[in-house]
Design a protein that fits this description.
- The structure holds two protein chains of two kinds.
- Chain A is 0% helix and 51% strand.
- By secondary structure, chain A is mostly beta strands.
- In chain A, strand 7 and strand 8 (75-79) form a beta hairpin.
- Chain A is globular.
- Chain B is mainly β.
- Chain B has strands at residues 3-5, 10-14, 19-21, 24-26, 31-38, 44-50, 56-58, 64-68, 73-78, 87-95, 104-105, 109-114.
- In chain B, the strands form three sheets. In chain B, strands 2, 5, 6, 10, 11 and 12 form a six-stranded mixed beta sheet that branches. In chain B, strands 3-9-8-7 form a four-stranded antiparallel beta sheet, with no helix packed on it. In chain B, strands 1-4 form a two-stranded antiparallel ribbon.
- In chain B, strand 8 (64-68) and strand 9 form a beta hairpin.
- Chain B is globular, with a radius of gyration of 14 Å.
- In chain B, 38% of the residues are buried.
- Classes of the chains: A mainly beta, B mainly beta.
- The interface between A and B is medium-sized, with 28 and 22 residues.
Chain lengths: 112, 115
């Protein structure tokens, strides 16, 4: 069964450092997303990506964040200068136009 | 604007009893509605969806949900709960017109099933 894969599963970084979270979406999906969840709380939308550009982003997704699809398979989220409050689980997801989004297992980001 | 409300932070049921996890939504136009389950330290797993058609939809692990347009609700149900159903459940909505658009999630309901 196709699945979304994310690496690494856990990332510890010092405040102010750059991190890149990586995702491989399901191959025939066209829409890609990043979501964030702080300590088992609400799942918050960060950004959606379609046709090689951002289609929608939330207030959380400020200038410190960027996304990229560098090749035909990977989808990355970069945080340029991490803050303590960026500590969270980050989930990548992909979907077709109308269906459900499939989520990866997440990357736990800890900023110290 | 889209929004989802899950009015109960926690639902407690005894094993073998029916369970209901409530969800109401607000969206412009027709909604696409989804339920996801999250086990500890895991990602979100898709359970079921309503796109169109029959208001009662069936999904994984014996779960079902009923779409009620007049009440703007999409409650998750199961006739007989299992201890293994204990997890965090999220309702989500996407606007019909917004193909490929973001899912907006409710705050989650923790389901606890006791033996």
């Amino acid at each position: 069964e196709p699945e979304v894969t994310q690496t690494p599963s856990h990332q510890v970084t010092q405040m102010g450092q750059e991190v890149i979270l990586r995702c491989v979406p399901i191959s025939n999906h066209l829409y890609f997303y990043w979501y964030r969840q702080i300590l088992g709380q609400k799942v918050e939308f960060l950004v959606s990506f379609y046709n090689n550009e951002i289609s929608e982003k939330s207030e959380i997704f400020d200038d410190q964040f960027s996304v990229e699809r560098p090749d035909g398979s990977n989808f990355t989220l970069k945080i340029r200068s991490t803050k303590l409050e960026d500590s969270a689980m980050y989930f990548c997801a992909s979907s077709d136009a109308l269906g459900e989004a499939f989520f990866g297992q997440g990357t736990r980001l800890t900023v110290v | 604007a889209q929004s989802v409300a899950q009015p109960e932070d926690q639902v407690n049921v005894a094993e073998g009893n029916p369970l209901t996890v409530k969800c109401t939504y607000s969206v412009s136009g027709n909604p696409y509605l989804f339920w996801y389950v999250q086990y500890p330290n895991r990602g979100l797993q898709f359970l079921l969806k309503y796109i169109t058609g029959d208001n009662l939809v069936k999904g994984s692990y014996g779960f079902e949900a009923e779409f009620n347009k007049s009440q703007t609700s999409f409650h998750l149900k199961k006739p007989s709960a299992l201890v293994s159903d204990s997890a965090l459940y999220f309702c989500a909505v996407r606007a019909y017109y917004n193909q490929g658009g973001k899912l907006i999630f409710g705050q989650g309901t923790e389901l606890s099933v006791k033996p």
